[in-house]
């Protein structure tokens, strides 16, 4: 099996062909994750227990759009960054995303039975194994990001780790999940709490948008982006992340479980606060499209080389699963 520390050549994305670009990156990420989750212990590891490794592979392999690593890879490509470094950084981002899904599906969180058309990790194994699998996917993400194979500069690796940590922790994804649980009424006597539009936007920017925006920022860091370019790309990532979440809320109402590969109508059933519940379905669709257009507008200074990122912003709003 190929050493996952090795740099990987990645084909250049073809403008206007987002589906094939996504598929190529997804295949490359799948191969790299497969290697990172191999049975052989790495340097300084003692052993890789098979049941835990199997659960981690169940949670990380064999599905998903791989949008987050795609954004990392495409941002680095736009700025002429190293393809192999971007791929490894994208794999680290995807490992964080996969950990979050494993934990979100747990009975104590969203209590889902299916993910990507398959049993969730706690259903395929058990709750304790699912918790450990999520923990291990998260720590592996930082293992990959801190490895010198991801970037030769220790300063850059520190910046990559910091960006990923800030997006996934207390002030980002995990904090957003806590706000979501509180709004559902998990605490304070079990009564759901109505959130204002501003509170919903903040919750969603943390729970979903932070990691999507970091995916773009990490690609910019890999490529050594100038401060102005990095700032613009972070704005792009935040707008795309917001559009993605509104689209997700709309799909929870309009899509079928077969199309999504998971249960639908969960938000309504749990009384979750979403922009759909506050704005209404038609206005939420307009807001989704506005956010997508805002993301595209931010890229005005990047020329046609950014067309794939523009297409990704449209995809975030127009996707059907």
Automatic annotation (TrEMBL):
Pfam families: polyprenyl_synt
Keywords: Isoprene biosynthesis, Magnesium, Metal-binding, Transferase
Coiled coil: none
Molecular function per GO: metal ion binding; prenyltransferase activity
GO BP term, pick one: terpenoid biosynthetic process
InterPro entries, alphabetized: Isoprenoid_synthase_dom_sf (IPR008949), Polyprenyl_synt (IPR000092), Polyprenyl_synt_CS (IPR033749), Prenyl_diphosphate_synthase (IPR053378)
GO cellular component: cytoplasm
SUPFAM superfamilies reported for this sequence: Terpenoid synthases (SSF48576)
Keyword Chaperone: no
Domain of life: Bacteria
Cofactor section: Mg(2+)
NCBIfam families: FPPsyn
Assigned protein family: Belongs to the FPP/GGPP synthase family.
Protein name as annotated: Probable farnesyl diphosphate synthase
Organism classification: Bacteria, Pseudomonadati, Pseudomonadota, Alphaproteobacteria, Hyphomicrobiales
């Amino acid at each position: 099996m190929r050493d996952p520390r090795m740099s990987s050549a990645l084909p250049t994305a073809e403008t206007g062909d987002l589906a094939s670009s996504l598929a190529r990156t997804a295949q490359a990420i799948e191969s790299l994750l497969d290697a990172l989750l191999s049975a052989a212990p790495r340097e300084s590891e003692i052993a890789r227990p098979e049941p835990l490794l199997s659960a981690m592979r169940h949670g990380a392999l064999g599905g998903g759009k791989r949008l987050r690593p795609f954004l990392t890879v495409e941002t680095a490509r736009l700025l002429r960054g190293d393809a192999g470094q971007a791929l490894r950084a994208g794999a680290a981002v995807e490992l964080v995303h996969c950990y979050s899904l494993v934990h979100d599906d747990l009975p104590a969180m969203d209590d889902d039975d299916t993910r990507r058309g398959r049993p969730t990790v706690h259903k395929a194994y058990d709750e304790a194994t699912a918790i450990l699998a999520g923990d291990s996917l998260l720590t592996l993400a930082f293992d990959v990001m801190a490895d010198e194979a991801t970037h030769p500069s220790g300063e850059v690796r520190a910046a990559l780790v910091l960006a990923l940590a800030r997006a996934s922790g207390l002030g980002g994804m995990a904090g957003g999940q806590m706000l979501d649980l509180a709004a559902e009424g998990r605490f304070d006597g079990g009564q759901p709490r109505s959130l204002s539009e501003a509170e919903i936007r903040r919750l969603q920017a943390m729970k979903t948008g932070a990691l999507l925006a970091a995916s773009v920022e990490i690609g910019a860091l890999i490529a050594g982006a100038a401060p102005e370019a990095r700032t613009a790309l972070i704005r792009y990532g935040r707008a795309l992340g917001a559009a993605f979440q509104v689209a997700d809320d709309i799909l929870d109402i309009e899509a079928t479980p077969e199309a999504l590969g998971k249960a639908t109508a969960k938000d309504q059933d749990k009384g979750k606060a979403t922009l759909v519940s506050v704005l209404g379905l038609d206005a939420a669709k307009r807001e989704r499209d506005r956010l997508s257009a805002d993301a595209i507008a931010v890229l005005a200074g990047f020329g046609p080389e950014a067309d794939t990122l523009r297409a990704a912003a449209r995809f975030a709003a127009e996707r059907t699963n």
